[in-house]
């Protein structure tokens, strides 16, 4: 069914594997070959082979969970599919249980799990659980900057979720300005808008009903005004073009080329305001005087 090359991922998907996991397995295979036969030598091959073994272990566990007729041995479908360098493989019976991102996370196949969670977040970007799970996977993998980005997205969708709040405390901001730039309010702008609308409706109903209780008018008016202001502030904060440093450190250079001097270095998890782009470079600035250029691959926008 699948020939050596581009047929591996379709074969895995046809066998019931999650699409993101199948694509990740194909990329692992390609990276392993590049490490083994490319100019870099065997330095990365052992690490990549170990990662593939982790993914294969999870897929094999899903295959073993399939119910088999009495007296028959389970078919090693996924173990055959994932053999690297074999010319042709045959897909036999697909498993009843597709290996999930959670199973990959539990088995330690963090790159595959992150790919799968990222695919879920791309499909359903309004679901905070996907962003939280992606952040937890990246945090476990040691990618603190990327984990911060994912958890901030989750917090913006569910600002009062205690689990997300606790997760963010695991990655404190590297500087006070970043803490202010990445702060998330008690409610979303839409929620503040609903509170403000309710306050205005109650205020006008009180006036239209002929009542003149000063306490009620003052209370409803104060709620409407306060909610409107808080909603506007939260919307303005989220509307800023903020990016988070995902590299270990991002040198902010005076000009958009590698030889330019770096006036400052922003640590992983640091926040920057993004301006124009110039090739692979992005102009960034902050209110504390940092202004210059960083590589686009060193930051991730919110």
Please provide a written account of the structure.
The protein has 4 domains: 2-104, no CATH class; 131-172, no CATH class; 189-239; 242-301, SH3 Domains (SH3 type barrels, Roll), CATH 2.30.30. The protein is built from 12 helices and 9 strands. It has helices at residues 8-14, 19-37, 45-64, 77-81, 101-107, 110-123, 128-140, 144-157, 162-169, 176-181, 189-208, 214-239, and strands at residues 2-3, 88-89, 242-245, 249-253, 262-267, 271-278, 281-285, 291-295, 299-301. The strands form 3 sheets. The chain has a 5-stranded antiparallel β-sheet. The radius of gyration is 26 Å and the shape is globular. The two termini are 41 Å apart. The model is unreliable at 65-98 (pLDDT under 50).
Q: What assembly state would you assign to the polypeptide chains in this entry?
A: single chain
How many strands, which pairing sense, and closed or not: the largest β-sheet? 5 strands, antiparallel
* Tally of DSSP helical segments: 12
Count of the separate structural domains: 4
Estimate the strand proportion. 5-15%
| Order of H and E elements | EHHHHEHHHHHHHHEEEEEEE
Question: What would the average pLDDT be, to the nearest integer?
Answer: 79
Estimate percent helicity.
40-55%
Across the major sheet, the strand order is 8-7-6-3-9
Concise account of the structure shown:
With 302 residues, this protein is α+β, with helices and mostly antiparallel strands. Helix content is 53%, strand content 13%.
